[in-house]
Amino acid sequence: MTKLKQYSLLNEKTRYQLLATVIVNIITFGHGVGVGWLSPTLSKIQTPDTPLDFQVDIAEISWLGSMLGLGSLFGNLTIAFLLERMGRKFCIYLLAGPYACLWILIYCASNVYYLYVARFLCGFTGGAGYLVVPIYISEVADSSIRGSLTSMVMLSVNLGVLVGYILSTYLAYHIVPFLAIILPIAYFTANLFLPETAPYLLRRSQLNAAETSFRYYQNQKRGMEQVSKANFDELRLAIDAQQAQSHAALTYRDLITKTALKAFAASIVLSTGYQFSGIFSFINYMSTIFEASGSILDVNICTIIIGVVQIVGVYTSTILVDIIGRRILMLISTLGVALGCIVFGCFTYSAQFYDLSYLNWVPLVLMIIIIYLGNIGLIGLFFVVLVELFPAKIRSLATSMSVVFLSVLVFGTLKLFPLLLHYFGISVTMWFSAASSLLTFVYFLLFLPETKGKSMIED
């Protein structure tokens, strides 16, 4: 019973850690709304009945998709520069501005370039948020629930994607921005009440502020309990030891140690598998995929169903990540996505030669399986594993470098995916995704370490 209570997210000691996680994830939820908004909207703005004063073609669609990756790259570089200089809280505040601007641009769009910039800002918010939010959560959360809290980043994104699907499917184009702009206002206001993280304050030699922060996130307003005092002293000594060892300056030699290189290799495979498995591209172009698969079911209803499945998948990972660990969920996820994409490709290939209309439900079922399995590991735990892979000394820089690499991949895959569908067809696209997932599974099976319970202050 005591052990179950220790791992409970509603434990009295950790309730402010949960509250802080929910508050900072308002922006990741909002990013998800921006991502999900695109898929049903594309089908509207390609027709003569477009709610805008212009239509878009296949080349413009590929740019609309890929601008997310370009924005993510710039967002990550910006936050990487500011993260250690200005702190986690400043970077968290910063995200509200560009996110509000993207909905203003969507509402005012008079040509496709407005939408390009809006998608760029959506990517900027995501790229910045994917860096600062997991680091912030990892620094305020107890190790017993850190995996569950960090995995809420993708749970929030997927919930936002579902809401984006629903809003853009059933509401008029110009109504959605009016509703969505409430999010950055709520996000900025709620974050005013959260203190900076204790580890960052300790690195800045702000001992009193660090102790106040530590007490807040441990829900100890009147003073520290003996155990928490010992934990704070341990944290302080560990950070002092890091700084004494490094003498402040981080050098390139820290990035080429054996441990660091292994972590970089794992992060490269993790990022490549995440993008080339196709899961993120599927989410952005879900309505287009169902149209290409020949399914006669309503594509927007199918897209919304997939949005629900994403949430169930990430919620599953949130429950299991601190129980069975990261590695086994990653293995199940990558192998499952590979097999699912192979079968999906075979079905759509066979449908070119045989009448399979009586099996029109199969693409939806297969996509449910693919998306669910992708979200229990490869998507749901991506940032959990990424942050935990690196030694403490290089974590901020290395995580930033990894997300820069991921952003480049996002740009490339979202630019190429609609072109692959258009020129090579759905079957070849799915088989390519399957091959990428299978290779990722093999690497994880051989080399991915288990990071469950790893200390965030020690290498």
UniProtKB/TrEMBL annotation:
Keyword Cytoplasm assigned: no
Coarse class of the protein's main subcellular location: membrane
PROSITE patterns listed in its UniProt record: MFS, SUGAR_TRANSPORT_1, SUGAR_TRANSPORT_2
Any one of the GO CC terms: plasma membrane
UniProt topology in membrane: Multi-pass membrane protein
GO molecular function per UniProt: sugar transmembrane transporter activity
Top-level taxon: Eukaryota
Ranges annotated as spanning the membrane: 16-38, 58-83, 90-107, 113-137, 149-167, 173-194, 263-283, 295-316, 328-352, 364-390, 402-424, 430-448
InterPro entries per record: MFS_dom (IPR020846), MFS_ERD6/Tret1-like (IPR044775), MFS_sugar_transport-like (IPR005828), MFS_trans_sf (IPR036259), MFS_Trehalose_Transporter (IPR050549), Sugar_transporter_CS (IPR005829)
Subcellular location: Cell membrane
Keywords: Cell membrane, Membrane, Sugar transport, Transmembrane, Transmembrane helix, Transport
KW Transport (keyword) present: yes
Domain Major facilitator superfamily (MFS) profile: 20-452
Protein name in the entry: Facilitated trehalose transporter Tret1 isoform X2
Species assigned in the record: Drosophila hydei
Organism phylogeny: Eukaryota, Metazoa, Ecdysozoa, Arthropoda, Hexapoda
Gene that this polypeptide is encoded by: LOC115482945
